Amino acid sequence: MGSDLRITIPGRFPKPEVRTNQADNASRVGRILVVDDEQGISDFLLFGLRDEGFEVYTAVSGEEALAHLEEYKPHVVLLDVMLPGMDGYEVCRMLRERSRAAIIMLTARDDVEERVKGLVTGADDYVVKPFSFDELKARIDARLRTQFPELRAVARIGKFEVDQEQHLIRYEGAALSLSRTEFALMEMFLECPGVALTREQIMSRVWGDQFSGEDNILEVYIRYIRNKLHDHKRTLIRTVRGVGYRLDLN
After folding, report:
1. pLDDT at residue number 153
2. pLDDT of residue 11 exceeding 60
3. What is the mean pLDDT of residues 238-245?
4. What CA–CA distance (Å, rounded) separates 134 from 140?
5. Model pLDDT for residues 45-72, shown as the tens digit of each residue
6. Domain boundary among 147, 176, 202
7. Which residues touch 5 (CB under 8 Å, ≥6 apart)?
8. Considering only 7-11, 118-122, 136-140, which range has the smallest mean pLDDT?
9. 191, 164 Cβ separation under 8 angstroms
């Protein structure tokens, strides 16, 4: 890989632990097994895909991946061709015999014979290094839609549901009619329920550091959201004096 790997992970507000039903969320978003002996690639994919909401496992060899296949039960396997011991093609063949996971092979060689060999042994897709993280994410999403249509990026948090694919948030089963800004605000609150977010943190995440609009813009949008949630007593989105705002699920 070296320094040529064009992986870009968008900077996001550091998320405190989200108190959700993690097993339900992970099972609906997708489990990914990364099989690669290059620590740099493995770490980039581990942190990048976890940031996207996936449950991610890693293995440094085909033998390790196969040994833990039943434990991990991946929906997608990102499989390097050049592995120590058993090569990626042999691992791919054995994975295909044991699992219905989508297999995306990773290789530094961009020639037709290599791609055909991977596809013939059971791979579903082929990505050549260096690759962009966004492209790989799109390919993973495409495989999940095709091979695991029962999976959707829906997170359940208290009485809320966040459907990233449809860009939709539901509360108590009812869809909220949110503008893009309102969606971004609610998404941020739902990432860390019970945590007091400062005005500065919210403004930086939702409007950017260079925002030069009205000083009370945050208060205006908080009022919009409270109205749509019928939160007239302000028991859902609470004002934390001297700090900012907090979403309470109880």
Report:
1. 63
2. no
3. 95
4. 10
5. 999 998 887 889 999 999 999 999 999 9
6. 147
7. 40, 41, 44, 129, 130, 131
8. 7-11
9. no
Q: Does one domain contain both 121 and 159? A: no
In terms of C-beta density within 10 A (0-12 exposed, 13-18 middle, 19 or more buried), how is residue 86 classed? Answer: middle
| Residue 112 and residue 158 share a domain | no
**Does residue 186 sit in the same domain as residue 140?**
no
**Which residue from 21, 58, 66 is spatially nearest to 38, judged by alpha carbons?**
58
Q: How many domains does one find in the chain?
A: 2
- Structure-token pair, residue 129: 């290094």
CB 69 within 8 A of CB 100: no
The one-letter amino acid at 199: R
In whole angstroms, give the CA distance from residue 185 to residue 12.
13
What are the structure tokens assigned to 165, written together?
Answer: 């694919």
Q: In whole numbers, what is the pLDDT of the chain averaged over residues? A: 84
Say yes or no: 69 and 102 in one domain: yes
